[in-house]
Amino acid sequence: MLYNVFVDPFVQMADMPDLLVQVLWEGTVAGVLYALIALGFVLIFKASGVFNFAQGIMVVFAALTLVGLHENGVPALLALVLTVGVMYALAWSIERVVLRPLVNQPDIILFMATFGITYLIIGLGEFIFGGRPKAMITSELFLPRGAIDVQMLGGRVTFQKLDIAAAVIAGLMVAALAVFFQRTRIGRALRAVADSHKAALSVGISLNQIWVVVWFTAGLVALVTGIMWGARSDVSFGLQIIALKALPVLILGGFTSVPGAIVGGLIIGVGEKVGEFYWGPLVGSGIESWLAYLIALAFLLFRPQGLFGDKIIERI
Amino acid sequence: MSMRKFALGAAAAAALGTLVPAPAVAQDTIYVPLLSYRTGPFGGSGVPIADGMHDYLRMLNERDGGIGGARLVIEECETGYDTKKGVECYEAIKGKNPVVVNPYSTGITLQLIPKAHVDKIPILSMAYGLSAAAVGDTFPWIFNPPATYWDGASVFIRHVAEREGGFDKLKGKKIGLLHLDAPFGKEPIPLLETFAREYGFELKLYPVPADKMQDQASQWLAIRRDRTDWIYNQGWGAMNPTAVKEAAKNNYPMDKLVGVWWAGGDDDARGGEAGGKGYKSLNFHGVGADFPVIRDIQRHVVDKGLSRFPKDKIGENLYNRGVYNSMLIAEAIRTAQQLTGKKAVTGEDVRRGFENLDITEARLKEMGMEGFAAPVRITCGDHNGHHKVYVAQWDGQKWTRGSDWMSPMSDKVRPLLEAAAKDFAEKNNWPKRSEACDKRS
Fold first, then answer.
1. Which domains does chain B show, CATH number per domain?
2. Is B207 in a helix, a strand, or coil?
3. What's CA A133's distance to the chain center, in Å?
4. In this predicted model, what pLDDT tens digit does every residue of A258-297 receive, in sequence order?
5. How far apart, in whole angstroms, are the C-alpha atoms of residue A43 and residue A65?
6. ipTM computed for the complex
7. Rounded to whole angstroms, how far apart are CA atoms A226 and B414?
8. pTM higher than the cut 0.90
């Protein structure tokens, strides 16, 4: 038993290094995609201190809108632009109808409101698009197809071009968000709102405008996430389950940190793939779901605020 | 109108309502609830089945005025493929005297099995649910024709043996079960373990947790590492197109990936795009719209705008699965009417109807289902029938027949089912059957 746990997995890694590279690559890609989902949560949490339960269904709604418009004869790139418009309209509506009446209410009220938003979007999505799965318009969006096979370490490692594109796009998106938060006036205002709604209002920051901006940005992240996940599988309501994968990432990376979402995503992605592949068979496989939480909880023992989260000190 | 006049009018109308006699004979109706799921992660598979089930029953109403003079009252209850919601649906509809309940989920079926004999409502878990429920002596209220998951797995093994050149060639092979990590996915494991011991192949299990349905990289890397020769896919919902996509991505020989009948949706195979060509799935009914029964549905339901299903997709595999499911319901009701002489039969009557179900070639032809399905016969002791299935193969555009009708290995499956039923009864303090068997059954 001890051999199987502490020795055999490493023997396998040494015996088949090409597979180890493949596992690490798959974990990295999964991690990048988890990070994308987590980013959506982080954005809204930073601006309002609210965990947005609706982020998963926003991913589905954005992807369905894009594919649905295209199915109805709208050219792909125009459909993309229109979907961005729809996500803006959604952000504006949420701010007007849900958030504005709830200013200064306890966070738990806002959190519960995001439950309501979730079920509203589910109903709306099913009413408009139906429940049938749809194929992502990968080629029409000029996303690369096919794979690059590299002979290395005595074997073959396959890199899907789509996965490479996902990693590049996610990287660009993170860089753009970092610049947005650090270098722009709205970004700084957003950070001020995150620190204190009242203080931000007192210096003339428009809370309503900030909320629209942040929900719209989260909508854009959801659209990119939906395109990438949809291209790997299909576009269906099943995608909303993927959002659950953001939870351990957020626990690990911290709810308020963009770099934390990225690093957390990578640790969870690589950790669960390596764990499942080398140690999973010892316990009947299928351990990925809870392994991610185990990894996150192990980190929490040492950094309760997450890797990059803000340490909150409150007077009592 | 003033409030006074309105109140007077309303009172007069109410009084008249009490005086107007009810029709001398209310039309006979039969309540058929459909537990379906059009929403959630499994909605992609659930929608075509729900529409197929609904449209066939609606066609009977439109074309024939119901069954045997009794109009069908069809009501859907949305479960989202969630066991808790499914049980809630059952509790909500059981007071309306349903003649049969279709749980459309193995998880929900397992919850309803102990309730069926108490509430006197037969459960039809068509080719899903608890395999051991095929033993009618133990489970008089549960029916799972035309084949159990164990039958399906045995046909898969028979197919592998045929392709490999005989059962003796299975020795040393690696056969994998890629399955949803849920009761439905795990169902064939006991049978495959028994066969692995008997035929000497190595069984590899690749469970896919529900939240990883759309990210199966780990499972397919493990398949690559293990060099698994054949894969049986016991998948559902979003798991299936992802599995086909992953197989294509990993250059797995597509004709060695065989899905259970629930892994054979058109959207499942289409998910693999060009790489999905050659993917196989078990099936027990015809695919396509070129059957008289489907044409009747088009004429009486679709063309009248009474169907929610896209016109151009009528005849897809899972739509026809729903049609087949409703055909079994309708035939059980018809048989119950013949047995009892009543138009408005009850759940107890329909239970007897199922136990006496005998759908012959002639009857299939009469229903416009010649070549659509194999004959089905259920008896008091055998609630499944272990009927023939075939292997369908995706040609890149549509499903085609990939084999002849193949019999399950009933001689091996049946004793295992009986042992499993006995074990279930002992562990659950299960009541002995008190329902009498009909003579013709």
1. 29-147+287-387+418-427 (3.40.50.2300), 149-283 (3.40.50.2300)
2. strand
3. 21
4. 888 889 999 999 999 999 999 988 888 888 888 988 988 8
5. 22
6. 0.82
7. 46
8. no
Whether residues B41 and A241 touch (CB distance < 8 A) is answered with: yes
pLDDT at position B441: 59
CB B153 within 8 A of CB B209: no
Alpha helices (runs of H) in B147-291, residue ranges in sequence order = 149-164, 183-186, 189-199, 217-226, 239-249, 266-270
Tokens of B236: 């559902």
CA distance B381 to A136: 49
Each residue's pLDDT tens digit, A122-175: 889 888 988 778 889 988 989 998 889 898 888 889 898 988 998 899 888 888
**Which residues of A lie inside 8 Å of B (Cβ-Cβ)?**
16, 19, 22-23, 26, 29-30, 122, 126, 130-133, 135, 147, 158, 160, 229, 232-234, 236-242, 244-245, 272-273, 276-277, 280-281, 284-286, 288-289
Residues of B with CB under 8 A from a CB of A: 38-44, 46-48, 181, 205-215, 217-219, 221-222, 224-225, 237-238, 241-242, 245, 249-250, 267, 270-271, 273
Enter the tokens of residue B82.
Answer: 């969630």
Q: Comparing C-alpha atoms, which of B175, B281, B173, B285 is closest to residue B235?
A: B281
Query: What value does the mean pLDDT take over residues A236-257?
Result: 83
Residues whose CB is less than 8 angstroms from the CB of residue A298 and which lie 6 or more positions away in sequence, other chains included: none
pLDDT for B18 equals 43
Q: What separation in angstroms does the CA of A108 have from each of A102, A113, B428?
A: 11, 8, 44
8 Å CB contact of A286 and B207 = yes
Indicate the average pLDDT of chain A: 87
B22 pLDDT above the threshold of 50: no
Q: For an interface test with B, give the residue of A32, A233, A282, A291 to mutate (most B CBs within 10 A).
A: A233
pLDDT tens by residue, A40-90: 888 888 777 788 889 999 999 999 999 999 999 999 999 999 999 999 999
Residue of B nearest to A149 (CA): B250
Element (H, E) at A166: helix A161-183
Calculate the CA dihedral of residues A223, A228, A229, A230 and round it to 10 degrees. 80
Q: What is the pLDDT of residue B4?
A: 52
What band does B21 get if pLDDT is binned at 50, 70 and 90? very low
